[in-house]
Write a structure and sequence with these properties.
mainly beta, two-stranded antiparallel ribbon, 0% helix
Length: 108
């Protein structure tokens, strides 16, 4: 199996993103978790899979639940203030390093 490359990402938790490829293309969600080691993101309400869950205690219910599965980080793109997908660049102003939308130039 190919070795995972640890890369830095410009995306952060709670960013509003859209899926740009795959079966969920065009859907919008919020990032719940970022796995930089495997270059994957967990997006709220996207890529739902059914998972069998065993009972943990006597009064707990087991069964089949739906949970989010991860997507590759290259398949999502952040949304700017206009709701359009954009890339991210950094702008350094004094000591502060801020994320900026490439298409509009607005701060994210």
């Amino acid at each position: 199996m190919a070795e995972a490359i640890n890369t830095n990402t410009k995306l952060k938790k709670n960013d509003q993103v859209t899926v740009i490829s795959g079966k969920e293309k065009g859907k919008i969600g919020r990032i719940l978790k970022i796995d930089t080691k495997n270059n994957r993101v967990l997006v709220e309400g996207i890529n739902m899979v059914k998972k069998a869950v065993r009972k943990k205690s006597q009064n707990d219910r087991g069964g089949i639940i739906e949970v989010e599965a991860s997507l590759h980080i290259s398949n999502v793109q952040i949304l700017d203030k206009n709701g359009k997908p954009t890339r991210i660049t950094y702008k350094i102003e004094g000591d502060a390093k801020t994320r900026v939308s490439v298409t509009t130039g607005d701060k994210l």
